[in-house]
From TrEMBL:
Pfam families per record: LysE
Any one GO MF annotation of this record: amino acid transmembrane transporter activity
Membrane-related topology note: Multi-pass membrane protein
Main location: membrane
Lineage, broadest ranks: Bacteria, Pseudomonadati, Pseudomonadota, Gammaproteobacteria, Oceanospirillales
Any one cellular-component term (Gene Ontology): plasma membrane
Organism (species): Vreelandella songnenensis
Coiled coil ranges: none
Residues annotated as transmembrane: 41-64, 71-88, 116-136, 148-168, 188-206
Official protein name in the record: Threonine/homoserine/homoserine lactone efflux protein
Length: 207
């Protein structure tokens, strides 16, 4: 896989992971309520759920391209529309998208359980992956390329939230995140709209 294409994939995955939402609130809650270890545990198990969805998406898209290219094209366009809608929603969020999380007593076991459930219980996650990976998956895509796509999504998601958990051990981090969440929303919105346009332009091929 060309390094430049991998960087595109990594950037998009990072954008999705950094966007404020229920996953970030989960890690914040367990970190503030139980300390660094429960927060990191929630992050890692959330990444496992993300990897599972990414794997299903890559397999499903590959089969769909081969059997029903017209249906795949329709799904691609619907995915682009969904990404554009998410982008517009993020741009309009403004300061209403501030990060809030209530600290509650927690354990690493509870964090692991909730980390997986939040990922697997979020149907929007697989829709996002369909829209995202539709531009990377091709009929002749190798097993190695598929593995790289899945691992990239999983490792970036886990890595980002682990950094959040570690960073929250310093008391100044959460207030900074809360103050700047609206800028994260705005940047995410612009990138999501750009991604939607890129999906419409056609798939990225691996060589």
């Amino acid at each position: 896989m060309p390094f430049s294409l991998w960087l595109s994939l990594a950037a998009i995955c990072a954008m999705g992971a950094m966007s404020p939402g229920p996953s970030l609130a989960l890690v914040l809650r367990h970190t503030l309520g139980g300390g660094r270890l429960p927060g990191m545990t929630a992050a890692l198990f959330h990444a496992l759920g993300v990897g599972f969805y990414a794997l299903l998406t890559v397999w499903g898209l590959g089969a769909l391209i081969t059997r029903s290219p017209e249906v795949f094209q329709l799904i691609t366009w619907c995915g682009a529309a969904y990404l554009a809608w998410l982008g517009i929603k993020a741009l309009r969020a403004g300061r209403e998208g501030d990060i809030r999380a209530n600290a509650v007593a927690t354990t690493s076991r509870q964090a692991a359980k909730e980390g997986v459930l939040v990922a697997l219980g979020n149907p929007k996650l697989i829709i996002f992956f369909v829209a995202l990976l539709s531009q990377f998956v091709t009929p002749d895509m190798s097993a190695m390329a598929k593995t790289i796509v899945v691992l990239t999504a999983m490792l970036i998601d886990g890595g980002w939230y682990v950094l959040v958990a570690v960073g929250l051990s310093h008391s100044r981090v959460l207030p900074w995140l809360q103050r700047h969440a609206h800028w994260v929303n705005r940047l995410t919105g612009v990138l999501l709209i750009a991604l939607a346009l890129r999906v419409v332009a056609g798939p990225i091929t691996f060589s």
